[in-house]
Amino acid sequence: MQLAQALDAINHFAPNKIDTLCDLLPLDLINQALEQTETVTLRKRKLSLESMVWLTIGMAIYNDKPLSQVVNMLDIVNRQGKPFVAPSAIVQRRQALGEDAIKAVFELTQRHWNDQALHPHWNGLTLLGVDGVVWRLPDSDENKAAYSRHINANKTNSEYPQVRMVCQMELSSHLITASAFDDYSVNEMKLAERLIINTPDHSLTLFDRGFYSLGLLHHWQSEGTERHWLIPLRKGTQYEVLRKLGRTQSIVRLTSNPRARKLWPNLPETIEARLVSKKINGKLTQVLTSMTNVQRYPVEDIADLYSHRWEIELGFREQKQYMLGNRLTLRSKLPEMARQELWGILLTYNMIRFQMVKMTHHLKGDYLPYQLSFNGALAHIVRLLVGLPFSSPGAIPGQLKTFYELSKSLVNEPRRQRSYPRVVKKRPQRYAQKKCQSVLN
């Protein structure tokens, strides 16, 4: 039984009793994405375009295995005639699928999953985080022509071409809501600007201090209804205090410069923001926010809010370290295929994260998805995906019931507070250092 047939069989046998893996990647959304991007095939193929979508997911989960082995493990090939497919045919089918189709699948599924996730709100706002990450590409001629390299401290280029990516994440579930990536030389704020169109209303976005730009923040706030932002105060930022709201907060006026107004035509000369201060471990921490309504957004709630931005950093770690197994270089040697692979990684990560959202719905207690073990959930989902094609239809509902019951064992212990101050780690060396004989004696 092929993977797609197994997923269809789940709904056929128990449509009302359990939530199913088919809900994670609905076939109608895949077909809708293929229609939107006009990605069609006129001939019957051993690898359908729907199967190629599943292949991009398999590439992210089994990134240490060749594509032909991933196809066989997921059983997504038509076994009529020859029971296998040539590796060159897999590459051709990936190119036929292209980048736009996978991007459309990601956008449709993230919207579908976020609507079903029932995210908790903070004072009526959805908590979002925005941050950037860098991916390495194979050192092929095509990738070198399309993407630049990082210049090291000693003025030499890095070994691999690199892609800069900026993502927007819902912080309670770690679901990626939007993403933009480009050449490494493109500034993160330029990529963040592309995410504004996908930002939901009635939301609060937490930024790192590197995204401080009055033009970006004003545009982010003015493009919708109650699209608020919160960002740490950069050292040396000039502002004028308009009125004090107590010992720890005030309304301030920020003045834009002519260059910023030239880049952002709708940016006014001044904007008002709220400055909140708090001492943490004896160190003064200050954040700026667009939430100037003191009655609706109490200062006590805002002061501890910025620490949740770290969830997006943990999300990047889950993608690179857990899901990809620290294999930081992508496998695609063509720029378009590399972008397709990146959309596949985000799609796979969201698929796993949405399954963890469903797990929390089966737990007794007030749990949020980020409190479950991503590594443990990934292991169970991989085992279930591989086993589905080889299971009888009648056994599938029982496997899913057991799968949801395992969610109790995935609850993480509460995070410990940092017991040591931050330090700069020693830079690892490529080669071992030779010790002198006198030192050994």
Characterization of the model:
It contains 15 helices and ten strands. With 441 residues, the protein is an alpha+beta fold. Strands 1, 2, 3, 4, 5, 6, 7, 8, 9 and 10 form a ten-stranded mixed β-sheet that branches. It starts with a helix and ends with a helix. The model is unreliable at 1-21 (pLDDT under 50).
The structure class reads alpha+beta
> What Rg do the Cα atoms give?
24 Å
The helicity comes to 25-40%
Distance between the termini: 67 Å
Total strands: 10
Proportion of residues in extended strands: 15-25%
Largest sheet: 10 strands, mixed
- Mean pLDDT across every amino acid position: 83
Tally of helical runs: 15
Low-pLDDT segments? 1-21
What sort of overall outline do the alpha carbons produce when their principal axes are compared? globular
List keywords for this structure.
alpha+beta; ten-stranded mixed β-sheet; globular; disordered N terminus
Summarize, please.
The protein has 441 residues and is an alpha+beta fold.
Topology:
Layout: H1 3-13, H2 27-36, H3 49-61, H4 67-74, H5 87-117, E1 126-136, H6 141-146, E2 149-151, E3 157-170, E4 175-183, H7 188-193, E5 203-207, H8 214-222, E6 227-232, E7 240-244, E8 249-255, H9 258-263, E9 270-280, E10 283-289, H10 299-303, H11 310-323, H12 335-361, H13 374-387, H14 396-405, H15 437-440
Parallel strand pairs: 1-5, 5-6
Antiparallel strand pairs: 1-3, 2-3, 3-4, 6-10, 7-8, 8-9, 9-10
